[in-house]
Design goal:
By secondary structure, this protein is mostly helical. The protein has one domain (39-294): Orthogonal Bundle (MetI-like fold), CATH 1.10.3720. It contains 13 helices and no strands. The model is unreliable at 1-15 (pLDDT under 50).
Length: 299
């Protein structure tokens, strides 16, 4: 009886968290992706707690401290109005996080809806949807963004909706390909043969098996949205003042006073570069680890 109890206890102690195992595999097989994930988490932390981490209020002005170089008192220096650049960069990270997560989430939902309907049902619905996607993708992204934002006006809700539509419709192609691949598997045909309803097949077979693709699509869209929002803010079409964004910091004081204070352009520019690169590297690592066809390639 004691032996039986021992055999029942041992597997319980031997079980490991899937989350811990996945992260160990990420560190072991994709160290650059793990570093990107750490930078991504740091970006999220700074965005969530920006109001507590910022040493000064974002628009606090002290003309006696204007254009101060980086120091212990002002790690990122000050701008032409004596505002602390570090505080404005942290608030900019918060705005970028809000916009990127909301827009990437909306884009992912749109991609799932269009991709699942188009890939699963096929036929004429697929042809009509994909011709619409083709027409949408013929327009250059930046030109389309400028035109739409010029019409609806700047602001966080407008930017989120516009970027969500832009990347959601284009990303539906990726989801559609994954759905078509899953649709042709034997378990899907078996469910169809026994008369399972369409909603049951989509919920039990299609959606769970395309989730790795959806997760990777969401992470890569975050980096794309940050770049797009920074580009719009640089052109004066993004989040309106007085809210500081990384793109507006590059366009305003960063461009005007970059020769007197190069840190004004370096601080937001390096933040954009680091975060976007880290998110893309992390997304690539997730793709390699979550795709069964990539297992064992780099071992």
């Amino acid at each position: 009886m004691s032996d039986l109890g021992l055999t029942q206890v041992l597997p319980t102690h031997g079980k490991r968290s899937a989350f811990i195992s996945f992260n160990e595999r990420l560190i072991r097989e994709k160290p650059l992706g793990a570093v990107g994930g750490a930078v991504f988490l740091l970006f999220m932390f700074c965005g969530i707690f920006a109001n507590f981490l910022a040493p000064f209020e974002m628009n606090y002005t002290d003309l006696t401290q204007r254009l101060q170089p980086p120091s212990l008192a002002f790690p990122f220096g000050t701008d032409h109005l004596g505002r602390d650049v570090l505080s404005r960069v942290l608030i900019g990270a918060q705005i970028s996080m809000i916009v990127s997560f909301l827009a990437a989430g909306l884009a992912t939902v749109i991609s799932i809806v269009i991709g699942v309907l188009s890939g699963y049902f096929g036929g004429k619905p697929d042809m009509v949807m994909q011709r619409g996607v083709d027409a949408w993708m013929t327009f250059p992204d930046l030109v389309l963004l400028i035109v739409i934002v010029s019409v609806v006006g700047p602001g966080i809700p407008q930017i989120v909706v516009v970027l969500g539509l832009l990347y959601g419709i284009a990303g539906s192609r990726i989801v559609r390909g994954a759905v078509i691949s899953v649709r042709e598997n034997m378990y899907t045909h078996a469910s169809l043969s026994i008369g399972a309803p369409t909603f049951h097949i989509l919920r039990k077979h299609i959606l769970p098996n395309i989730m790795p693709v959806v997760i990777v699509l969401f992470t890569t869209r975050i980096g794309a949205v940050i770049l797009a929002e920074a580009g719009l803010s640089f052109l004066g079409l993004g989040i309106p003042p007085p809210a500081p964004t990384w793109g507006s910091m590059l366009s305003g004081t960063g461009r005007t006073y970059m020769y007197l204070g190069p840190w004004l352009a370096l601080a937001p520019g390096l933040c954009i570069t680091a975060v976007v690169y880290a998110v893309n590297v992390y997304g690539d690592a997730l793709r390699d680890l979550l795709d069964p066809r990539m297992r064992g390639v780099n071992r």
